[in-house]
Amino acid sequence: MRILMTGLLIGGLLTACGGDEAPAPAPTTPEVKAPEPVEPVAPAAPEFNAEATFKTTCAPCHGEGGAGDGAAAAALNPKPANFNDPAFWAERDDAHIHKVIKEGGASVGKSPLMAPWGGQFNDEQIDQLVAYLKTTFKPAE
Ligand code: HEC
Questions:
Q1: What is d(CA 106, CA 113) in angstroms, rounded to the nearest whole number?
Q2: CATH for 50-137?
Q3: Does ligand 1 have an atom closer than 6 angstroms to the CB of 55?
Q4: What's the 1 CA to ligand 1 centre distance in angstroms?
């Protein structure tokens, strides 16, 4: 009898213990990774294109062919210079052309209708415009 009791007791204890599960390990916080910093991509400065600039900005007065016959030229007096005329180039050097474009016609005693473009284009860009005018319109000698 005693053995049976003990057996039951032990059995009961075992059962109790068996059901006593070890506490679940505290859930580990999933490691939150900071997102990789994204390199800010600076928008590339649009490439200056003398030809495109001349066609959009200067041609309305000067004409695509540089003859001074742009659509707006009809209303101008004096008319824009004819860049195809050898005489035009004979009387003007690069520094003069640069100055006219940068500071306007009035800066060299010409018409103020030739506006100063220095606020819009830097010296390097104006040099490119001068080069464009020469290579495109200046008649071969
Ligand atoms: C609103 C019309 C107009 C626009 C736009 C214009 N010009 Fe002129 N430009 C003139 C006129 C008018 C003259 C002639 C001035 C004169 O002979 O008194 C002139 C003259 C010139 C001359 C010759 C100056 C000289 O010594 O005789 C150059 C070079 C010139 N322009 C370049 C440019 C360039 C480059 C642009 C564009 C960035 C431009 N122009 C835009 C009207 C314009």
A1: 8
A2: 1.10.760
A3: no
A4: 125
Distance CA 112, CA 122 (A): 20
Nearest CA owner, ligand 1 atom 34: 58
The pLDDT-based confidence of 37 (bands split at 50, 70, 90) is: confident
- Closest Cα to atom 39, ligand 1: which residue? 58
Cα distance between residue 24 and residue 82, in whole Å: 91
60 C-alpha vs ligand 1 centroid, how far in Å?
A: 10
- Residue 29: pLDDT band (50, 70, 90) is confident
Q: What's the CA gap between 32 and 138, in Å, rounded?
A: 67
pTM (2 d.p.): 0.75
Pinpoint the alpha helices (H) of 63-122: 86-90, 94-103
User: Which residue has the least CA distance to atom 41 on ligand 1?
Assistant: 58
